Amino acid sequence: MATPQVKEAPVKAGQPVVNDFSMTVATKNGSGSQTSNLTLLRALFKMGIPVSGKNLFPSNIQGLPTWYTIRISKKGYLARRDSQEVVVAMNDDTFVADLKSVVPGGAFLYGDHLKFAIDRNDISVYSFPAKELAKNSTAPANLRDYVANMAYVGVLAHLLDIDMSKIREALEYHFDGKEKPIAINMGVIEAAHAWSVANIKKTDPYRVEPMDATAGYVMADGNTAGALGSIFGGVQFAAWYPITPASSLAEALAQNISAFRDVEGQDGKTYAVVQAEDELAAIGMAVGAGWSGLRAMTSTSGPGISLMTEFAGLAYYAEIPVVIWDIQRVGPSTGLPTRTSQGDILATHFLGHGDTQQILLLPGSAQECFEFGWKSFDIAERMQTPVFVMSDLDLGMNQWMIKPFEYPDRPMDRGKILWEKDLEQLKNGWKRYADVDGDGIPYRTVPGNKAPNSAWFARGTGHNDEAKYSERSEDWERNMLRLKKKFETAAQYVPEAILDSVPGAKIGIVAYGSSDHAIIEARDYLAQDGIKTDYLRLRAVPFTSAVQEFVNSHEMIYIVEMNRDGQMHKLLQLEFPGLATKLMAIAKHDGLPLNARWVKDEIQKKEGLRHE
Amino acid sequence: MSETNGSGNGKTATAAPAANVQLNIIGMSKNDYRGAATTLCAGCGHNSISNQIIAAAFELNIVPEDVIKMSGIGCSSKSPAYFLNRSFGFNTLHGRMPSVATGAMFGDHLLKAIAVSGDGDTTNIGMGQFKHIMRRNAPVVYIIENNGVYGLTKGQFSATAERGLKLKYQGTNPYTPVDIVQEAMSSGATFVARSFAGDANQVKSLIKAALSHNGISVLDIISPCVTFNNEDDARHSYGWGREHQEPLHDFTFVPKEQEIVLTDFAEGTTRTVEMHDGSKIVLKKLDREYDPTKRSEAMRLIEESHAEEVLLTGLIYVNEDLPSLTDIYKLPARPLNRMTDNEIRPAKSLIEKANAMMF
């Protein structure tokens, strides 16, 4: 079967394209464009139109190029698209390429201080006096370059029909109701809008119209959501070390925890957030706090995960609960620190030397970052082991339209912890590492327990059931087999995979994390071409029974992920060796959020080959 | 949680002691403070330090369950298994004990932490974490059992080995040694002492004083390795220590329950340092004029000891005025690990506040 090429539907001249296009703004890093871009995104969201915003930024403080893409989709597709219908150029360094990137029939808007030849006649081209508008504003001289970016907001508001009152709402939120910056920025936007109305004649077909598709949603980034979820999970100790793209999680935690956890009449803080000297110390502190009975966490990205390896192995083996967030970026080493990836799956699952199997949670949305924020503590304390929450840069740092956060639907699970009164009732004492209940999970006590038989000695060296030093082979083997059993037990406690099936589908797609929207959209395109697919979104490792059933019940399984080697594909092959031949990797590693067209094309190509 | 069973772990509350066994005022005998039998070499300085930890805790009437024991990796770091069996302990990673101790202090900040490390664990692999636990002023008694050599891996140089030291399989050390006291001082430690495992009384008194300090206390104790580095001319040997030890002062620790009987000290010859918990350190002047509350004095003294090639021991620096790590974080009176679910999970109504924060 030949591979059909998917093409965007051609735009017919004169026919408006409403609420279905992508817009990219090209600026320089550090120029203040983030405020303008978020204002556009939020105004569109407030107009009731489904939107997503993706920031493609460099590892740099000031000067390197950055692009912000907003997708406007009446169908609610939030994944990244490759083609750009509307492009705003504010960066001389990328002007030529930005001009090229506009699809035929699209619109190109640029600040008239950029002096370049325009060599395209198949698109609408507009320029506007960004500098002059900023100069004429009430902004102080030192802020003029920043507010110049507000000028494109005003021009776009005119060109695309964005509601000015919604722009004001967005600014009010951004500046936390502070009148002065709101007035300065709104002034520039209004002036630019008026200038555009007077001077630009619109010739492109792209525009927006109010809808009612965002009622009941909020906009949130996964890192803030994860921090808030951790707060609702009762986090008591967090240690962290700055790293892109994870820093904003710990910062959101430090900035917001007081508002939720300090209550009147309390004589002190029930939590601590410590910036450590490096990732080794960050996880070391969290492991110390977990050992001493606290809900403890750290947050990092790939390079930090590498540094945390030895502690991850120790915590696995000494059986210390701790939660570790990995906001994945492109690695190894520094790699592409500001690009997104799902490249830490294998390394993190096996993190530690010797035999280790770490629990991974795989949030697929900012809501799930919130949900797994609290759930991860329940699982870590129940299983007495590290729990890794595998987010990524796209999920963590970009704004997502989501259903509001929900309060935890169950009481906290503090796991098998024994205090003085529990020990009193145990006539025959207790053993730290004995498998009393047959589920591989032992009982634990924590420092501060005053019962004379409560104490035990935590160590990474060989130990027997009583936590005493042991080099006996039998002790070692028994302990390691119990840890294996414990990991199997974890499948009952981790979030279940989510299945979406359609009648008659013979093939399945397995994916996880931030690619959810791309998969949803790709399945629609595949269905339009007559390929029915079922979809299982993994939410954790170990794999739950639903995963086994899904693999069993489909002819072919495509595992879609954002890395080079198909890491989850490999884990599934290890889990189901007998079914390995029907597991196929669809993996992309370009550092960009997955786009649906690519997923559709790849699956179609592979399906074509299979039926040749 | 009552569904556990299983046999005892061998530790129970003290059985009624024989009539001739000495008890402290909380009714415990020395046995309540002992640990497992040591597996270190006979004559190892570390064993003598373990014994002084046991004696100090017994004499200070400390409840063993009120102490946590922390260590890294190495001979010294094995030793917490050999004292205070009734205390929780954590034998962590090589060079990473300070971070684990830092986090652990938040669980129950009313506990005392005794941390044991070695010169390799602290100044080779662990220098970074060592310096950062100083800056944070974590309330931990940080003992470095310093012998200038790696024991468990059979006799390699550590960073405290003196330049020119000759070891059997390693040749001659070409590098300048690290001075732990100097490192601690430069990192802002608030209680810094040096001692010698051969001077049991001084070790014990310093441990007692350190336990009453509110913040990090560093005890750099020269603790000879009888197997790999005990030639008489080696700086970390018993022989050199005995020949060159010069106590800075006659050191007496007076717990808060005890009154100082001033007649024991001739007027004008003593200096008293009041500790955070009301205990006192009485320093009786010996040969040198020295004020351990002055940072600049301490820095000068360390340089002097290098120039004079003496093992100056005693309390080198103390500062009771800085807040400890757990003070900085304004922890409540009750330990964090005793907080109920309702105290750490925000009320249901607050979910609206979380959503309202979003756009």
Q: CATH superfamily membership of the largest domain in chain A, which one?
A: Pyruvate-ferredoxin oxidoreductase, PFOR, domain III
Total domain count of chain A: 3
Beta strand % of chain A: 15-25%
Quaternary organisation: heterodimer
Q: What sort of overall outline of chain A do the alpha carbons produce when their principal axes are compared? A: globular
Report the count of strand segments of chain A: 24
Radius of gyration of chain A: 27 Å
Low-pLDDT segments, ≥5 res of chain B: 1-14
Can you tell me the CATH architecture of chain B? Answer: 3-Layer(aba) Sandwich
What is the number of helices of chain A? Answer: 20
Q: What are the main properties of this structure?
A:
heterodimer, A: 612 residues, alpha/beta, Rossmann fold, eight-stranded mixed sheet, six-stranded mixed sheet, B: alpha/beta, three-stranded antiparallel sheet, 28% helix, 19% strand, disordered N terminus
Overall description:
- The complex is a heterodimer of chains A (612) and B (359).
- Chain A is α/β, with parallel strands linked by helices.
- Chain A folds into 3 domains: 17-207, Pyruvate-ferredoxin Oxidoreductase, domain 3 (3-Layer(aba) Sandwich), CATH 3.40.920; 220-402, Thiamin diphosphate (ThDP)-binding fold, Pyr/PP domains (Rossmann fold, 3-Layer(aba) Sandwich); 498-610, 3-Layer(aba) Sandwich (Rossmann fold).
- Chain A contains 20 helices and 24 strands.
- In chain A, strand 10, helix 8 (247-261) and strand 11 form a beta-alpha-beta unit.
- In chain A, helix 1 runs parallel beside helix 4, helix 4 (144-160) crosses helix 6 and helix 5 (164-174) packs antiparallel against helix 6 (179-199).
- Chain A is globular, with a radius of gyration of 27 Å.
- The model of chain A is unreliable at 1-7 (pLDDT under 50).
- With 359 residues, chain B is an alpha/beta fold.
- Chain B has one domain (30-251, 288-357): Rossmann fold (3-Layer(aba) Sandwich), CATH 3.40.50.970.
- In chain B, helix 2 (75-78) links the parallel strand 1 (67-71) and strand 2.
- In chain B, helix 1 (45-59) crosses helix 7 and helix 3 (97-104) packs parallel to helix 5 (127-136).
- Classes of the chains: A alpha/beta (612), B alpha/beta (359).
- Chains A and B meet through strand 9, helix 7, helix 8, helix 9 and helix 11 of A and strand 2, helix 3, helix 5, helix 11 and helix 12 of B.
- Strand 18 (457-459) of chain A pairs parallel with strand 2 (88-91) of chain B, so a sheet runs across the interface.
